[in-house]
């Protein structure tokens, strides 16, 4: 088992933790799966029924940020109350992450998107604060789904 960071997010999946880890490390540079521990034989405990081979503890790193995850069943799902911010250097990087992470068009707003696992992301330029200093820039941002830097600069 890899050593845990002092504070790190833990993502609860129904039964897609392994698939999600593989997907996320393919999206972000300098990323890797650190370890995957599977549930033991289901005959050992009533809580393990139907979980054999699923992830009880997965550890992965996305561009220097450590995460843990697990397959915990359908009791809990992701909401927009938690999201991860991806700070992009330019429009090209915004476009790339947006195309890879946005899978729920009705959830797109102001740079927010939702991936195929239901996790929310904010794909924004690193200088977002500078791009929304004036009320007219904020109005433009509020109408955007994916952030278009040029539209904010020209507002």
Automatic annotation (TrEMBL):
Gene Ontology terms for molecular function: methyltransferase activity
Keywords (alphabetical) are:
Methyltransferase, Transferase, Ubiquinone
Mind telling me which SUPFAM superfamilies this protein's record contains?
Glyoxalase/Bleomycin resistance protein/Dihydroxybiphenyl dioxygenase
Q: Which residues form a coiled coil?
A: none
Gene Ontology BP terms: methylation
Please report the stretch or stretches of sequence annotated as the PhnB-like domain: 7-124
Matching entries from CDD domains are given as: PhnB_like
Quote the protein name from its UniProt record: Putative 3-demethylubiquinone-9 3-methyltransferase (Glyoxalase superfamily)
- Species name for this entry? Glaciihabitans tibetensis
């Amino acid at each position: 088992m890899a050593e845990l960071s002092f504070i790190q997010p833990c993502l609860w999946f129904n039964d897609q933790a392994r698939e999600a880890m593989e997907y996320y490390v393919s999206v972000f540079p300098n990323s890797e799966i650190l370890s995957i521990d599977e549930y033991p034989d289901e005959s050992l405990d009533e809580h393990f029924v139907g979980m054999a081979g699923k992830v009880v503890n997965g550890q992965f790193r996305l561009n220097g940020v450590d995460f843990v995850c697990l397959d915990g069943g359908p009791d809990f799902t992701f909401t927009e109350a938690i999201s991860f911010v991806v700070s992009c250097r330019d429009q090209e990087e915004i476009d790339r992450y947006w195309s890879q992470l946005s899978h729920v068009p009705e959830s797109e707003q102001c740079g927010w998107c939702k991936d195929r696992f239901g996790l929310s992301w904010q794909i924004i330029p690193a200088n977002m604060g500078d791009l929304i200093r004036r009320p007219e820039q904020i109005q433009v941002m509020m109408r955007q789904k994916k952030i278009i830097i040029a539209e904010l600069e020209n507002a």
